[in-house]
Design brief:
Structural class: alpha/beta
CATH superfamily of the largest domain: Glutamyl-tRNA reductase, N-terminal domain
Radius of gyration: 31 Å
Strand order of the largest sheet: 7-6-5-8-9-10
CATH architecture of the largest domain: 2-Layer Sandwich
Helix content: 40-55%
Low-confidence stretches: 429-433
Number of strands: 10
Order of helices and strands: EHHEEHEHHHHEHEHEHEHEEHHHHHH
Largest sheet: 6 strands, parallel
Mean pLDDT: 87
Length: 433
């Protein structure tokens, strides 16, 4: 007789419940995650785990058997990983068990738990965490099935709804706005002023959008060169760095400018923009300022041939797109509900499988014994016909028996019927016969 089915639990901190400083302290890098998994390996009742850490969350998914000492084991494993265990049991922690943990995982993979609804990045981070955990140890059947189902649900949500359309970050909104200026980005060049995290993200969005060329200007030439090299990824010189003192000249050679330095004073004034537009001989120059404080002086908006857009313009795009995405949440949740129903159906049948195998083995044994008698007395054709009919009989008996167990009025009745079938057809009983 097999024991109770293992269950899935999740303990974590995320942007919904924990401030940034708490999330930073809870973060598990690869070294810490490996130490965490290694420390859990010998804990009684532990089956497997997948730790996930992103900028917005650290979540620990575990498959455990009944009786597993969750708090004691997690405390020991997190301590071994160099992380304060109290973060995962205190006021900022999220604690989900069983069906709630699985539903959260499916919603996370589908972008419904992200700070920006529909954001696809977390799916890739989930897959990275899943692959990392599988490389360290074998995942249990419940955790394996849950993650695979979550990935499938996420894919269906992204392809079956429009919850992922429209820019919901300022960096992406800048690119979306640029698309409205130009029929084809590949015919145009962009200038990135500043080489920080926001600028790098925006540059990647521009490259993914097919921009024809990108120039990086930064006060630190080394940082500008490093970003250009990183963005090129060894595939040529689509992205180039220019010295800071050539900022004015660079303005005249591009079609769209993205300013991201956050300097205390504007780094581009109206006169610099006016000089650049004259050199462009009537060709418009679009200026996107996403810095705080502003990088481009407001007077640049009055320069003929220059079109200045600031954070307020981009925030409006983001708000509009987020509102549009929220309208698709019910459709996404309906897809997730169907996927969860399939998972729970699979989980509910897990306790049947060993008994089904034993029962099938018993019936096959009886069939083989009877066929032996037939083959001694009848032709091969008759024996083949008898075997075919017995196989159909086995299929019907198995189907009726399993249906009777599955359709029990309560879990207690289900377990009683399952136990009765095991008792009658267990290997020990067959040996006595």
């Amino acid at each position: 007789m097999t024991g109770p089915v293992a269950k899935l639990v999740m303990r974590g901190v995320d942007h919904h419940m924990a401030p940034t400083e708490v999330r930073e302290r809870a973060h598990l890098d690869h070294t810490a995650a490996a130490a965490f998994l290694d420390a859990l390996a010998d804990e009684p009742g532990f089956v497997s785990a997948v730790p996930l850490s992103t900028c917005n969350r650290t979540e620990l998914y575990l498959e455990v058997e009944p009786g597993f000492g969750l708090r004691r084991s997690l405390t020991a494993a997190l301590t071994a990983a160099g992380v304060d265990p109290g973060l995962f049991f205190g006021e900022h922690a999220r604690r989900l068990d069983g069906a709630e943990a699985v539903a959260h995982l499916y919603r996370l993979s589908s972008g419904l738990e992200s700070m920006m609804i529909g954001e696809p990045q977390v799916t890739g981070q989930l897959k990275d965490a899943y692959r990392f955990a599988r490389a360290r140890h074998e995942l249990g059947p419940v955790l394996l099935r849950a993650f695979q189902g979550a990935f499938r649900a996420g894919k269906r949500v992204r392809t079956g709804t429009k919850i992922g359309t429209g820019a919901v970050s300022v960096a992406f909104a800048a690119v979306e706005l640029a698309r409205k200026f130009f029929a084809d980005l590949s015919d145009n060049r962009a200038l990135l002023v500043g080489a920080g995290e926001t600028g790098a993200l925006a540059a990647r969005h521009f490259l993914q959008g097919g921009i024809g060329g990108l120039t990086v200007v930064n006060r630190s030439p080394d940082r500008a060169a490093a970003l250009a090299e990183d963005l090129n990824q060894g595939k040529g010189e689509l992205v180039r760095a220019r010295p800071w003192d050539e900022l004015g000249k660079a303005l005249a050679t591009v079609d769209v400018v993205l300013a991201t330095t956050g300097s205390p004073e504007p780094v581009i004034d109206a006169e610099t923009v006016r000089t650049a537009t004259r050199a462009r001989k009537g060709k418009p120059l679009f200026l996107l300022d996403i810095a705080v404080p502003r990088d481009i002086h407001p007077d640049a908006a009055d320069v003929d041939g220059a079109y200045l857009f600031g954070l307020d313009d981009l925030d409006e795009i983001v708000r509009t797109n987020l509102t549009a995405r929220r309208k698709h949440v019910p459709d996404a949740e309906a897809i997730i509900d169907r996927e969860l129903e399939e998972f729970h159906g699979w989980l509910a049948d897990m306790d049947l499988r060993p008994t089904v195998a034993e029962f099938r083995a018993y019936l096959e044994q009886v069939k083989d014994k009877q066929l032996g008698y037939v083959r001694k007395r009848e032709s091969d054709a008759v024996a083949a016909a008898v075997e075919e009919n017995l196989q159909r009989f086995i299929k019907k008996v198995l189907g009726r028996s399993m249906s009777t167990i599955k359709n029990a009025d309560s879990q207690e009745e289900r377990l009683r019927r399952l136990s009765a079938l095991r008792e009658i057809f267990s290997p020990g009983e067959r040996e006595q016969r």
